[in-house]
Amino acid sequence: TLSSRADARTSRHPRSARPRLLRGSPRASVQSYGCPTIRNQKHKESTMAEEEAARAFLALQENGSVSGAAAVSWVAGHPRYAALSRPARAKAWSVADSNDSGNLDHTAFTTFVKELDEAATASDASTPVAAAAAAGLVVGGPPGAVVLGGLTACYQSLSRVGQSAFVGGLGGMLAAGPPGAVAGAVVGAGGQRVADESYLGDPRRWSQYADLATKGVEERTRGLDSKGVERVDEGAWVQQRDARTGPALEVLLGERLSGRIGICGSGGGLRAATALAGFLAEAHACGLLDATTYLSGVSGSCWTLSALYAEDAFDPRKFPDVLRTRVAKDLRAPESAWLAGSVSAPDSFVFPRFAARCRDGHDVGIVDVWGAHLAATLLPPPAHGGFGLAAFRGKLVKGAAPLPLLTAVEPVKVGPDWSSKNCCERCGDSFSLANARHHCRACGASVCDACCPGFGAPTLAAALGRMRSTDLDFEGGVWARPLDKDLVRRCGRCVAAGKEAPAERTAWRWWELGPLEVGPVGGPKIDACAFGRRSHEPPCSLTGGEPVGALLGVVGSAFCATLEKVEGCGKKGLASAAAKYLAHPDGDPGASLVDPATFHSGGTRVRLGDAGFCHNLGWLPLLQRRCEVVFSVDASMHALKGDGFDPSYELNRARTAAERLGVDLPPIDMKAYATRPVSFHTDGKTLLICLPLVGFEDDAWCPLRTAHAGGFCSNAGASYEAKDFDRLSGFMRNRLRAALPEIKRRIAAHLSSTC
């Protein structure tokens, strides 16, 4: 047996060196600034997990690695891990087997066991009880430990519906007193019941539908009809497209000139989607779209590009009529089939996708649900986005249409790695309840109170008083100096050396999701039909890949925003500063409030979110490709300033992001951008033509002011009446039509000078 083999191998070692079995004692999930005693227990159990991993690896390994079958057998016989759900085990394997090899070396197997241990601890009801009791002990002594621990134990004993009622009642009590407690409990219980029993069935059961998970993988692999579709790289495709855009550009300008044109939409939800649809319809009618090589979008404008290319025929002139009908339905309203209960919910088109994602080890959360809503509303039946981006290749054969590029961003951690040592790295003192462990934000070392004098605010009130809005400096996707530098904890050695702390933060790496390739902007990419595929799965067809319906929620997941994003949009003040401190006391205010979705890409797991977190203008993919002419259909929620508006916030972020990526952005005349319906900006190489969604003196209506006033085109708009859709899309059509003669003249002059 496996145990006898392990005993035989470990009998050669002295008793003191033999690994100890993991006892499964409760472990508190408490941050390092919370309770040092429980933190020590956490460190101890982490060591025990490593020791058990070492023992199991010796017993299971063959030629230096553990196969998947052996790992499954070991987990099934483990007294603690066997009770874990299938998604939890699959997620642990997915994290450990990052290169999809199907085997784990010693390091990867240790990671696998640690992930299992964390999942088992999270499912242990005694863990939150211990954490609550410890917090109560710190705050109120023994009585506090009894009260908080007892309340948490009662909460853990409730059903999911009971827990939701408890939370809803507590929130209602804080908001409106006893009447609010009753209302909150009813709403909480009812909402959880709907989520568990009526809305796509019980999420806890998704992973149990093995046949539906297999169906979801098959749909991702199969794609749509690939007749006539060929595999080409972007370079070969651009040559095919140039053969079409050259004559079209000559017809548009009336003279023979060469150059590539790109059109990009902006973020702005349904407002941006509608504005881009109107612009593309007019661009197609006047011949501009025939001369265009690339289309790119951010957030809401990606919805338009996905829906346009998902149609049977590529016809931008008729597409506004299609979109008008679809957005008359509220994007937030679920399909009636989804509310039919857990019995018929698996028959819905989206259920296999969720089941497949669960089986692949991904968390299915609000991003996936939101993507399903968007797909059900915006994409055509019956597939509703159950096909990959590569399916759009059918519209690109022989360069027949522009290449669409959706954008997203990957959160990238910036800053020093934090040490895991359990004693001060400066004086050697052990950490305890009276001597808490801290991490130096400049070097990452574990230090005690006495060895980190570089923390200038002794109280929370003092810290909040020094948190000024000027301390926030957003630079192209990186939040630098999120706090006053004296509020960032540094060890004595770094203070003496004058080493400033690059506060732990999150930066954004831009990604482009296209029908041909998927990957970071300016970085290595993979074939679009391989995105989402794991190495052990069969190759996808030329139209397969991660479902577009799943990606729609990613490119439009504004609810995953960071707290600084809210700060940067003007929501400043003492309340937001307090929320920021409480939400990110460890000094990482750039973390997302809701985790973005994860995907498999080229043997690794990536986490992607809405590109609007960095900035709302989709210029980067076009600038990186050195397009000579770039149109910017800007429906961003710019700040109002007197009779005009102030675009400096978005434009400065876009400029810094371009500099970080190493691409050239033409100098932008802020005054012209803010005061003219169409503004032109050039550096001699690229001509940037900007059309903001703002009404000026000659316009009877201003969409931006309507949005700021909470009208139909605000960020919260989830459906449009036909008259409102026509008014908004017609605004952008009329703007392009009125400015077309000047646009042609400027393009001709620019291309003549560059040639």
Structure report:
There is one protein chain. This protein is an alpha+beta fold and 755 residues long. Strands 3, 4, 5, 10, 11, 12, 13, 14, 15, 18 and 19 form an eleven-stranded mixed sheet that branches. It has a two-stranded antiparallel ribbon with strand order 1-2. The protein has a two-stranded antiparallel ribbon with strand order 6-7. The termini are far apart.
Which helices and strands occur, and which strands form pairs?
Blueprint: H1 2-10, H2 36-60, E1 66-67, H3 68-76, H4 86-96, E2 103-104, H5 106-123, H6 126-157, H7 160-198, H8 210-222, H9 234-253, E3 261-265, H10 269-286, E4 294-297, H11 300-310, H12 319-326, H13 351-359, H14 366-378, E5 403-414, E6 438-439, E7 446-447, H15 460-465, E8 473-475, E9 478-480, H16 492-497, E10 505-513, E11 517-520, E12 526-527, H17 548-555, H18 563-568, H19 574-583, E13 597-601, E14 604-610, H20 620-624, E15 629-634, E16 639-641, E17 644-646, H21 648-661, H22 670-675, E18 679-682, E19 687-692, H23 703-708, H24 722-754
Parallel strand pairs: 3-4, 3-15, 4-5, 15-19
Antiparallel strand pairs: 1-2, 5-10, 5-14, 6-7, 8-9, 10-11, 11-12, 13-14, 16-17, 18-19
Helix pairs in contact: 1-2, 2-5, 4-5, 8-13, 10-11, 10-24, 14-17
Keywords:
single chain, 755 residues, alpha+beta, eleven-stranded mixed beta sheet, 44% helix, 11% strand, globular, disordered N terminus
Task: Explain briefly what this protein structure is.
Helix content is 44%, strand content 11%.
Mean pLDDT: 76
Q: What's the total number of strands? A: 19
Report the structural category.
alpha+beta
The coarse overall form would be: globular
Low-pLDDT residue intervals, each spanning 5 or more residues: 1-45, 456-486, 568-587
Binned strand content: 5-15%
Based on CA atoms alone, the radius of gyration comes out at 28 Å
Biggest pleated sheet: 11 strands, mixed
How far the N terminus sits from the C terminus, by CA atoms, comes to 76 Å
What percent of residues adopt helix (DSSP H or I)? Answer: 40-55%
- Helices, by number, come to 24
